[in-house]
Amino acid sequence: MPDKPAIGIIGVGWVGLVSAACFAELGHEVWCRDIDTAKVETLRRGEVPIYEPGLRELVGKNEARLHFETDLAPVVEHGKLLFVCVDTPPTYSGDADLSRVYAVVNELPASGDHAIVMKSTVPAGTGGSIKWKLAEMNKTSLSYVSNPEFLKEGSAVQDFMNPDRVVVGANGDAIWSGDAVAALYEPLGCPVVRTDVASAEMIKLASNAFLATKISFINEIANVCEEVGSDVKQVALGMGLDPRIGPSFLNAGIGYGGSCFPKDVSALKQLAGNSGYHFQLLTSVVEVNELQKRRVVNKLKKHLGTLIGKDIALLGLAFKPHTDDMREASSVVLAARLQGEGARVRAYDPVAEDRAKELITGTEMCDTPLDALDGADAAVIVTEWPEFAELDLEKVKLRMKSPVIVDGRNLLDAEKVRAAGFVYEGIGR
User: Fold this and answer.
1) Does residue 251 sit in the same domain as residue 398?
2) Residue 407 and residue 154: Cα distance in Å, rounded?
3) Which end of the chain is more exposed for a tag (fewer CB within 10 A), N or C?
4) What angle do CA 147, 149, 155 make, to 5 degrees?
5) CB 201 within 8 A of CB 124
6) What DSSP state is assigned to residue 90?
């Protein structure tokens, strides 16, 4: 059996590092490049700078196949398929910031043996722009493939190794590289969707926008449920059993966050606007998501009256459980709003405290959930960490000044919490 081809990874953030570790697990030598010297040194020591279940173990298991560099040359020397995994954050206009992508394109040498494989999320049409840029720089021999990622934080390793589909976009001049990228995923035994480049780019944006729409829709239903006395959990169950709808992403709460949904919804909305089309549905999706985060404040006022001088405990800070990612986390907005109302805020998160400190000011970070709840006038469950569902309610009640819980993720058993003597407010319940 021939040796598996070496792979280049440019940008060792969350997507890049997960991809590198998983390709190494599949038997490839993986050469990784990042311009962050401190990050590269950390990885060379065998330390993983992000929290993702199973990633540290996978990196350690495959350390002999993983090479981390700050220089691009050894990556290009060893790998023919060069996966671009750099950030594309939103700009003030809502467009994706492609400066890091083009920095990579500018630096790559002209070579008919190499292919740019775009894993970074980019607007539909970016591949065409990059091909034009390559022609301008006399680098037309470089092949170009779109290979968007569909990883979920908190289960990224599992998602990579057991994907529901892989998308490979290549135009007629890049058939060899499209075939080569598709071949990498053959051991995973998943469907491989072969498209042109622009369609592959759109599949990524459309998928995330649709999932965000489901979240905002069920949150709107939850708000109506509160008005008419329905329970959104029962409503979502009944809806989700319809195979045309499905149960995924029908969990009402205080809104989506993270590195993908907010950015990709904004990027698709902006892409449509730049093309002269007003994407009204996505405008509403974004508006509902922003308002949902603030409804918690009104729920607290309903039971506490003014929040001036009140102590509020936030349980969970990361945008979702099993990650330390604080990007677009609801806790950031909520902490700021509560402080704006005059409340004192304490918080606990099992893994995201260090990253949270960079974004949330004026909030006391606590070592345990009970420390955060000590003397609190109310508690808000912001992130559905499983350990919060296992808290001893009797101990919690003894610690709190007043037994008020706003369950922003519908994590707890409402009847059990109320039976323990708490005032319980869920979302749509």
Assistant:
1) yes
2) 21
3) N
4) 155
5) yes
6) B
The enclosing domain of 215 has a CATH number of 3.40.50.720
Q: Is 236 helix (H, G, I), strand (E, B) or coil?
A: helix
Tell me whether residue 78 is exposed, middle or buried, using C-beta atoms within 10 angstroms of its C-beta: 0 to 12, 13 to 18, 19 or more. Answer: middle
Say yes or no: 186 and 326 in one domain: no
**Tens digits of residue pLDDT in 378-421:** 999 999 999 999 999 999 999 999 999 999 999 999 999 999 99
173: tokens are 């001049």
Q: Please check whether residues 308 and 226 belong to one and the same domain.
A: yes
- What residues have CB less than 8 Å from 41, skipping those under 6 apart? none
Residues tagged active-site: 260
Cα separation of 142 and 177, whole Å?
A: 10
Q: Which of 108, 115, 99, 23 is nearest to 67 (CA)?
A: 23
In this structure, what token pair is assigned to residue 269? 């909305």
* Mean predicted confidence (pLDDT) in 362-369: 96
- Given a contact cutoff of 8 angstroms between Cβ atoms, the answer to whether 37 and 71 are in contact is no
Residue 31 tokens read as 């050469």
Give the DSSP letter string of 8-31.
EEE--SHHHHHHHHHHHHTT--EE
**CA neighbor of 113 nearest in space, from 202, 177, 172:** 177
Q: What is the pTM of this model?
A: 0.90
CB atoms within 10 A of CB 48: 17
Query: Is pLDDT at 98 greater than 50 in this prediction?
Result: yes
CA pair distance 193, 196, nearest whole angstrom = 10
pLDDT at 263: 86
CA distance linking residue 287 with residue 131, whole number of Å: 36
Is it the case that residue 2 has pLDDT exceeding 80?
A: no
What is the extent of the structural domain holding 217?
210-425
